[in-house]
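Please annotate this fold before class:
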Amino acid sequence: NPAKLLHVDAYTGSIKVGKDADLVLWNANPLSVFAVVQKTFVDGVCFYDIQQDAKNRAWIQQDKARLTLKMIQAKKDGESTVPVTKSPENHYYSCGGQEENSR
């Protein structure tokens, strides 16, 4: 109905071939706090899939463990290490921020 009221129902407002739509598939009512997104499509392209995300997270975890073990082994073998250095924090102020308040 909103698409009809705005006179854009030829382009959007329903899921049909040839219409523009971004689509989110949930496992429950989207207004529920227990609802979880299963898939997201933008312009017909799948941007998120919960099953693919689980596979990606498992792969990342395995790769992180592999790299950590490799670094530990390199240290045990006597390779040089570089200490972690903290970069300085940048403080940003909005328009009319700190300078204006100090006057």
User: Anything to note?
Assistant: The beta strands are 22-26, 37-42, 45-49.
